Amino acid sequence: MNTERHARIDLSGDAPAAAAWLATQSVLHAQAWGNHIVLLRYRLTDCELASLETALMAQGWTLDQHLVARLRRSLAHYAERLARDNLGVPEHNLKTDGVYRQVWQHHAHGDRDDTPEELRRYL
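-> structure tokens emitted (123 positions)
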């Protein structure tokens, strides 16, 4: 399966500056097309469109909020997520095992119950 993706990001303006900033990322190729569109080429295993859009918004660029642009973005995110799942690319895990382990240890169950022994026999 081909992992190279072509995508487009619709911005409210200043696409050449956004493309220049994205081009500094070593995992993709970005090119401005007009003043509102950035064309991207990247490998699906290296990055994802949603994270690139988030990075652009964090830098101060505004995504186009027209209905067609939002639908195009949603469809691209869905297709990309599906392709990543089919390839077996692991999702970026924000919570590590340690978080779940810590919650499990603090959960009152079994012999970790803080109830005093005399009350346990009484009940």
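The mean pLDDT is 79.
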